[in-house]
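#structure-requests
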Amino acid sequence: MNQTSNNLPKTLPAFQPNRRLNDPELYVPDSGLQAAVDVALTLGQPLLLTGEPGVGKSQLAYYVAHHYALGQPELVAVQTTSVAKDLFYRYDALGHFQYNQHEKSALVPEEIESRFIRYQGIGAAIKSRKRKVVLIDEIDKAPRDLPNDILTALDRMSFEVPEIAKRYAGEEAEQPIVVITSNSEKNLPDPFLRRVVYYHIPFPSEGDLLTILANKLYGGQQANRDYLKLLLDYFQTLREDSFRLRKKPSTSELLLWADLLIKKNFAFDDFENPRLLSVEKKEVLKQSYSVLAKTQEDLQILYKSLENK
């Protein structure tokens, strides 16, 4: 039987998350995105965001909620099976059915609501009777009618829960701030597009990426931008068309990758000439590529890039 060496550590490593990576206070919206948010807030319309995955579309909702001290955003994670009701709540019909099969006493509506109904998205915002941010993520996955259902829900500012014969309504002043993301996998209905504010988040410029890295990795404190630029230049090389990666690594993957390299004590100045790295450092870098590459083909391209010519 072939045996392979086991390089896993004997003791479980302590997980030390870098909480700055998802800190909304450190989110850096570009000037165009800031203007789009201002327009959406002024008009009271949903903000539709497109851009490549990992560029920060969903994180904007958390930034806006934090900036205006509105608490955590209410989330609707859109699926291909989503229906209008999912914008407001989810009903655990199976759980309710199983309860009825095993219990003789029927539940009153308040008990059904407490046990089997979970409010989300626009429904949770309306029910809270507070101004809230609602994130509707990946709307392009939805059935065609759902985008228009969002606008109808915001116009009415009310919804019914037939399972408990209850209706919730909110005031116009409590209308939620709605952020909608799309990966542009399919076209959205024209009536929907006419009633939203649209912005495409571009891939950040070099200057913005340096600021993002400094903030997210070091909290902006004493960050050596020249040191970070060596990492960034190497990352940008991987994104070039000549590298022919099927999926170019995103901003979020850059942050995770940089955080991993720091935890592995990999010095960024080694990126001046990666092919001249020691065998040990090349091995660390090769292992780190699993954060950047998402297919076997891309992983092999990255491995090959470290080979001496």
